[in-house]
Amino acid sequence: MVVKNSDINQMGNLVKKALVQAKIEDRLILGLSQIVKCLMEGFMDIPTICLMAPPKQGDVATHMQEVLLQAFCLENGIYILHLDSAEKISRILRASTVESCALIFANPSGNSESEGSFLDEDYQLTKIEKQIVNFCEDNWDDLEDSTIHLPDK
Q1: CATH code: domain of residue 31
Q2: 3-state secondary structure 78-117
Q3: Mean pLDDT per segment of 10 residues, for the chain of length 153 residues?
Q4: Would 9 be classed as within a structural domain?
Q5: Domain that holds residue 61
Q6: Most-buried pick from 26, 37, 88, 95 (CB within 10 A)?
Q7: What's CA 80's distance to the chain center, in Å?
Q8: Beta strand pairing status for 107-108 and 47-52?
Q9: Whole-prediction pTM value?
Q10: What is the H or E stretch that residue 128 is in?
Q11: Cα–Cα distance measured from residue 44 to residue 53, given in angstroms and rounded to the nearest whole number
Q12: Exposure b/e, 10-25, CB count within 10 A at least 16 = b
């Protein structure tokens, strides 16, 4: 089954909202080196969604690190979405540098924006994050070949 274009377009808007909300709530790690550092230190929160955009053309070292990050995510049950543009990620988050990946962590329980206990007793997903996870689950086999297009504005 191929992921429908309408689903991909809707997902771009949801991902944008999830990025902004996670940044506001301090549940977002931006940038490959920061993500790797965080995961290597055994960060206490639960990483849920890894968002990856293509690195700069010809940046082989970053590509190899992203492949390793992707393998880590797959082994540890972290959902991966491929996005169309590192520039859009950075623009949405008002980052000072262009970064090709971001990692969203689950909400600690008790946040009023969360919907139920999805991961375990202590961590929850927001309604938007739950929609993204459901999309990942429904399209698991096709996600590697699909690119989510973030909104231009």
Answers
A1: 3.30.1330.30
A2: CEEEEECCHHHHHHHCCCCCCCCEEEEECEECCCCCECCC
A3: 62 95 93 89 74 86 90 88 94 93 80 49 76 87 80 85
A4: no
A5: 27-145
A6: 88
A7: 6
A8: unpaired
A9: 0.83
A10: helix 127-138
A11: 25
A12: ebbebbbbbbebbbee
